Predict the 3D structure of the following.
Amino acid sequence: MNISRRQFVKTGGLALSTMPFISIANTIDSKSTIKVGLVGCGGRGTGAVVQALTADPAVVVTALADVYQDQLDQTLKVLNNKDRARIDIPVERQFVGFDAYKKLIDSGVDVVLLCSPPNFRPDHLEYAVQKNKHIFCEKPVAVDIPSLKRVMESVKLAKERNLKLVSGFCFRYSFPNREIMKRVQAGAIGDIKSVMTFRCGGELTTHDRKPDWSDLDYELRNWFNYQRYSGDLIVEQSIHSVDYMNWLMNNKLPKAVFATGGRQSRPWNIKGNIFDHFAVEYDYGDGIKGMHFARQQNGADSRNTVEVIGTKGVLDVNIMSNYAIKGDSPYVYSGTINNMYQTQHDELMKAIHNNEVLNDGDHMVNSTLLAIWGRTAAYTGKKITYEEIMNSTETLGPHSDQYSKDMKLDEAEIARPGLKKFV
């Protein structure tokens, strides 16, 4: 099975780059300034650029880019309250529009932070790698399979050029998660037989429509509520739990996925077209199953846990509060719970200065694949194999360069399992 999958990636539409190895021009020694630019000035992007500043005194923020001027202005306001000597963002390096990411990447930055909605990520990542930039990119990295295949090419080229690539899968930068995972991988619970992950919480905030907003403006301001920008809640939010499962399974892909999901609490005719709950079974073969449960419903109980059953013990994780192993090798984590978001940028800047290998590409691709796979199985109501999902041609939205302020949008239909066809 693994051989056939490798063969598929090699021959099934991934045109491997023929570009020669390039020794990147922005190799940075320990005394050099690191020029950072942010693409996507929402809340997560603003947090990321502040964390980049905190990570290393050599960081200088030199450019911002967003589709909307008001969002860029909000980030600029936050940055202007930081160390002003390390904020160098003149008007000519404040880029607005759908092509703003290209202008920022071409502005002389060394590192680009990609924090726009997920549907834009494949284009932004591809251009940043082509221009030899070190990258922090938020999760997920695509919302459909054709775009994910482009990301695979970008990851391959980033490795060839020794570009540093850190993904927004922050659980992997948590000290307690790393310690518990080290013990699991050393055999503390024996062979893994089942994994259960839960990510249940309330709805995300919806912004009311303003009189001067177009249909596109309204959707982009509420992008997490729309399939074409977010990929649905399992791809956009609860993918963190899916990534934890992928980490436990050491990046092994399942043979097939079965899922259910729907829209119970959200109004049918407003607030976008995503589901508000998913339940997904990942079948790894040999009786090994992974289960993922996700929910965004106000008034319901919250849960963010990982439970693993092995042949010699069990793993019980309640994110940010409890990390324990029970069985033959009992263990309870009692060390520091770090700011994992900050650690991502600390380690990125360290790797840049020391020219260390740092590339999260493989697991960020596979975890995104698992989330898309689960969503597709739930939308269609069909059990979907690896070969089937990798042959999917469905695209949820246009490329970045195809967007315009006056573009016409297709109807945002809600998927109905059993009626929606697999494409």
About this structure: Residues 256 and 306 are 21 Å apart (CA to CA). The radius of gyration is 21 Å. The first strand starts at residue 34 and ends at 39. The longest helix spans residues 361-380.
